[in-house]
Amino acid sequence: MTTPLSRIRNFSIVAHIDHGKSTLSDRLIQETGALTQREMTEQVLDNMDIERERGITIKAQTVRLEYKAKDGETYILNLMDTPGHVDFAYEVSRSLAACEGSILVVDASQGVEAQTLANVYQAIDNNHEIVPVLNKIDLPAAEPARVRQQIEDVIGIDASDAVECSAKTGIGIRDVLEAVVERLPPPKGDPDAPLKALLVDAWYDPYLGVVVLVRVFDGTLKAGQRIRMMQQGATYQIDKIGVFKPKRTDLNELGPGEIGFITAQIKEVAHAAVGDTITDERRQAETPLAGFREVQPVVFCGLFPVDAAEFEDLRAAIGRLRLNDASFTYEMETSAALGFGFRCGFLGLLHLEIIQERLSREFNLDLIATAPSVVYKIKMTDGTVIDLHNPADLPDPVKIESISEPWIKATIFTPDEYLGSIIKLCQDRRGEQKELSYVGARAMVVYDLPLNEVVFDFYDRLKSISKGYASFDYNIEEYREGDLVKMSILVNAEPVDALSMLVHRNRAEMRGRGMVEKMKELIPPHMFQIPIQAAIGGRIIARETVRALRKDVTAKCYGGDASRKRKLLDKQKEGKKRMRQFGKVEIPQEAFIAALKMDAD
């Protein structure tokens, strides 16, 4: 028996990082009795170790709650807890498409932050009804009246009836549930129409195979039914249907407005494309639902095993991670310095860091990552345009007409005292200021910045300048032509492909000097001199030399003619010259890693 539509509510929880989304989800689960006191853990929906350790949500999670409201009716609440970090915004967009409303959580002591804005605008784009919730009102620094006004001024939504609560202590949790029931709209749908369900997410379970998260819009999903993926064109038979309460619970069918999971002997996650429309094979829907735009990787870097023998293990590990993270892309590449590895695409630096950490943790791999780079568009003299993921593959400069790089629109919220340093940081990174306004005592500054200046360590620098108080959010705006050049690092006249990068001509010398100075400290002395150079084309822009180790060949000469010593020293010099011609320079792995991390100046 399917639940009447009027008693279903589908909603997401959106907020900035650390404003208490996952803790609020815990309290809602506890309040509705979905888990007993003994089964409750902190951040019950964050089921990855890395999520618990870092205190962030990476994967959006869904849970079905049953709530008996004040009017005596029992409501089905489908809750989606979403990530707050900018790198996982695609998880947020998918969750929002499956819901009709959102709870906007704002920290009553911190107020509106950059990511609050980004996520709310996404919810408004999806025509969501929004219930503002002021969390952490038990803190001594909480100022609910000021934050209410801020929500109205900055976001432009009515916050006069915002619910006040404390997810930590449990104050006001029933008010939040009542607001969800009273103020969010029920879903629409026709149980007799042809089946139309949205594929929201898919992941690999070692026991069940591919598990697909679906939101039914029209029709009914039943166990044993043959379904068709409209985009892929593949057909499957449903084995299991169920919901997460948060424990997996099997059902016989899912009706319109409901969110649940199905398994259907799908062999690979790649066959369950996120955003696809599921319909009945015999009675197909005429038009598919509007899906999601393809997720585009923003940052690329090469991942190589420290021990070349681990390459096959790396290939298997990356393949398995890809099963649960559709936004991560990879292809094989080779490097003269590092051997075989993969060129991987990520949605941002945090995403890159999380994937690297999961590879080393879950699969015990020692990895080297090359310098992160963005996707450049190269316009050739013959009129063709190519995408460049790896600076080492830059075509012959004679054939290039222009190089364009991605620019982002960055929104930064900061307390007033750090504003000067933040503006200087943005100007140093070739930023263009677009607007500067004040929200209470905090400044909101909007900059256009080239993405390749941001991917290295912009976020870390911003946090250290502002002692962690500034918040940062960005979205890619456009590609702009720039005066970009390829900078190569030569060690003993041999180019090291893993260290080549595209830089703006004005910053090339500074970047090159920093790089060679760092390499000089890291390469151990050999028996011969080693020149380390930064070059643009055939022009050397910076150089350092690693001094040679020297054996004392004149030790056995004492007294006698000075020409004997001279002859021995000249012979040694000749030997060193020959050695330098044929000698191989061993660059230790730590040198690569440290050189790639250098950019803190």
TrEMBL record:
Keyword hit for Phosphoprotein: no
UniProt cross-references to InterPro entries, sorted A to Z: EF-4, EFG_III/V, EFG_V-like, EFTu-like_2, G_TR_CS, LepA_C_sf, LepA_CTD, LepA_IV
GO biological process: positive regulation of translation
Group of enzyme by EC: hydrolase
GO molecular function, one term: GTP binding
Topology of the protein relative to the lipid bilayer: Peripheral membrane protein
Listed PANTHER family: TRANSLATION FACTOR GUF1 HOMOLOG, CHLOROPLASTIC, TRANSLATION FACTOR GUF1-RELATED
PROSITE patterns: G_TR_1, G_TR_2
EC number(s) recorded for this UniProt protein: 3.6.5.n1
Protein family membership: Belongs to the GTP-binding elongation factor family. LepA subfamily. Belongs to the TRAFAC class translation factor GTPase superfamily. Classic translation factor GTPase family. LepA subfamily.
Organism domain of life: Bacteria
Subcellular location as annotated: Cell membrane
Catalytic activity entry: GTP + H2O = GDP + phosphate + H(+)
Its job: Required for accurate and efficient protein synthesis under certain stress conditions. May act as a fidelity factor of the translation reaction, by catalyzing a one-codon backward translocation of tRNAs on improperly translocated ribosomes. Back-translocation proceeds from a post-translocation (POST) complex to a pre-translocation (PRE) complex, thus giving elongation factor G a second chance to translocate the tRNAs correctly. Binds to ribosomes in a GTP-dependent manner.
Residues of the Tr-type G domain: 6-188
Primary subcellular site in the record, as a coarse category: membrane
Residues engaged in binding GTP: D18, H19, G20, K21, S22, T23, N135, K136, I137, D138
Name of this chain's protein: Elongation factor 4
Gene Ontology, cellular component aspect: plasma membrane
Gene encoding the protein: lepA
Keywords: Cell membrane, Elongation factor, GTP-binding, Hydrolase, Membrane, Nucleotide-binding, Protein biosynthesis
